[in-house]
Amino acid sequence: MDKSSINNYFHSLFSIKDEVVEKITETFKPFELKANDIVLGQNTISTKTYFLEKGYVRSYLLNEDNEEITTNIYAAPCFVNDFLSFFRQQPTKEIYQAVTDCMLWETGLENVQYNFHNIPEFREFSRLLFVLNYHNIHDRLIEMASQKASTRYSNLMKKDPNIFQHVPLKVIASYLGIKDSSLSRIRRDIHK
């Protein structure tokens, strides 16, 4: 299979030689998921890391009222995983589910550890990836605490306008921290 999407992703983050990327990704194996398939279940230990080549994946949890709360929506291309579960080998707290039909690549913890210890560029890439993930989580935390729902909606429209064509509004509303009816009202008001 063609690994150009993974290779392009590495190159998009920093300067790295093609042969180094090929070495890093040589054990990645492709697989597909249908919409609603589970990538990683709650209370499982992540033994693989996933690169999302095509599609959308969400992470969510169930609150005390057994309602689904979407914590993140991943849009290809990106890495998708519960990194704490993966690196610390502890159970996940969230569920990772394909929202659309997806094309992914996976590799195991042993390959990631090997690359960390043997490929300096991979260590640098991983550091950068962790910083970017932290930045995204931090920005989301600040956004949820300081912005109105309509502002969060507008920001999501700017960041990923295609999300509304692929991800159900119920999932988007949950991600924005609002009810479906509130999202409908916001959309109606903004698009007048």
Portion in strands: 15-25%
Measured on Cα atoms, how large is the radius of gyration?
18 Å
Flag low-confidence runs. Answer: none
| Backbone structural class | alpha+beta
Topology pattern, helix = H, strand = E: HHEEEEEEHEEHHHHHH
Strand order of the largest sheet: 1-8-3-6
- Cα-to-Cα separation, first versus last residue: 46 Å
Helix content: 40-55%
- The total count of strands amounts to 8
| Overall pLDDT level | 93
Choose one word for the global shape: globular
Give the number of helices: 9
Task: Pick out its properties.
49% helix, four-stranded antiparallel β-sheet, 9 helices, 192 residues, alpha+beta
Provide a brief overview of the structure:
The protein is of the alpha+beta class and 192 residues long. It has 9 helices and 8 strands. The protein has helices spanning 4-13, 18-25, 83-88, 109-118, 120-146, 149-159, 163-166, 169-176, 180-190, and strands at 29-33, 38-40, 48-54, 56-62, 68-75, 78-80, 95-98, 102-108.
Structure explained in plain terms:
The chain has 192 residues and is of the alpha+beta class. It contains nine helices and eight strands. The protein has helices at residues 4-13, 18-25, 83-88, 109-118, 120-146, 149-159, 163-166, 169-176, 180-190; strands at 29-33, 38-40, 48-54, 56-62, 68-75, 78-80, 95-98, 102-108. A four-stranded antiparallel β-sheet has the order 1-8-3-6. The chain has a four-stranded antiparallel β-sheet with strand order 2-7-4-5. α1 crosses α2 and α4 packs across α5. The longest helix has 27 residues, at 120-146. It is globular and about 55 Å long. The relative contact order is 0.16.
